[in-house]
Amino acid sequence: MTSALEKYYATNYSNCNLEYNFLASWKGVAYPSHVFQFISLPFQIFAFYVIIFKTPVAMKNVKTPLLINHLFCALLDLLLCTFSTVYYFLPMYGVFFVGVFSWFGIPNVLQILLVWLMMMLTGASYVYFFKCRSSILVQNKFRITRQKTRMIYYSLFFIPWMLTTYFEKLIPEDQDAARQFALTLHPCPTREFFTSEVLIILADNILIERFIWIFPIFGVYFASFPLFQVSTLIYYICIAPSNTISKDTQQRQKVFLFCILFQIFIPLIAVLPAGWVFIVYLTGRYYQTMMNVTFCSLGLHGLAESIAIVTVHRPYRKAVSHMLTEFKKRRRSIKVLPFLANHTRHSVTTGQ
């Protein structure tokens, strides 16, 4: 800490009377995130196995998009829960990381860009998943068939990532002055603000007022891509199905559509706390515990996504059920073998 921050910590901060709260501390976001990743990893690996080896012929068109989507979801979880676990001060626009990368001295700016990029790649994998499904429908007039058009389409999705080079210039060079300014916005942060290498992203009231609305604008922009693809799927499958396919095929398409929508909806529940925190913040209230719980809940996204994959789709459910049945049979056979061996040995000994 600089002398000014040390003086503030020794005098003004003592008047805050903040009680220790595990969930509000760095441990409250680091430890649960690491535990969630430890629990999620076996499920993620199992989902990879099911997609690769248990995908039926009827689902071969979505095997690759589903695999890509699951890969980026797993990588995002690995980043947020293990390598770049985020501790964020919303009122002050400050951030530091408590993951593995911080142990090796990876700069905060680089980790922010990495997390932002991985979030965008995960979002793009959802768009790719729905686009591949909608492209299969011959009657779809919005199909993207040309490679050039496809590249333009995805380039539009990554415009916010390209703009990060501009936002990076807004980060104050004088971080000591920026941290003192941040204390005027939120005089009583957790002790981590003083004991950690916090990076203040914005230190200007005008920029902060404008920056607040960037989050919902970007959210609407990102959501428009998958929502457009979902809308075309719903329209051409449920509202205006092709007359050239049988009723049975139409019914199977509807069932599969509802399955993939349900599959996507389940992990998105883990993202809802982020919107709640933003709304509470706009009302003038903020609790660090809420922010930490939000980032912990994001760590459950991959677990929910993995479970959704193997439970929503009927072929995968049948494959998992078959594997569990075979596993139980093997366990029973392993238990029976020692009994038979002992019984045979006893028969030989007694002459029976």
UniProtKB/TrEMBL annotation:
The chain crosses the membrane at residues 35-54, 66-90, 110-130, 151-167, 211-235, 255-279, 291-312. The keyword Nucleotide-binding does not apply. Pfam families: 7TM_GPCR_Srh. Signal peptide: none annotated. InterPro entries: 7TM_GPCR_serpentine_rcpt_Srh, Nematode_rcpt-like_serp_H. Keywords: Membrane, Receptor, Transmembrane, Transmembrane helix. This is Serpentine Receptor, class H. It comes from Caenorhabditis elegans. The lineage of its organism: Eukaryota, Metazoa, Ecdysozoa, Nematoda, Chromadorea. The gene is srh-116.
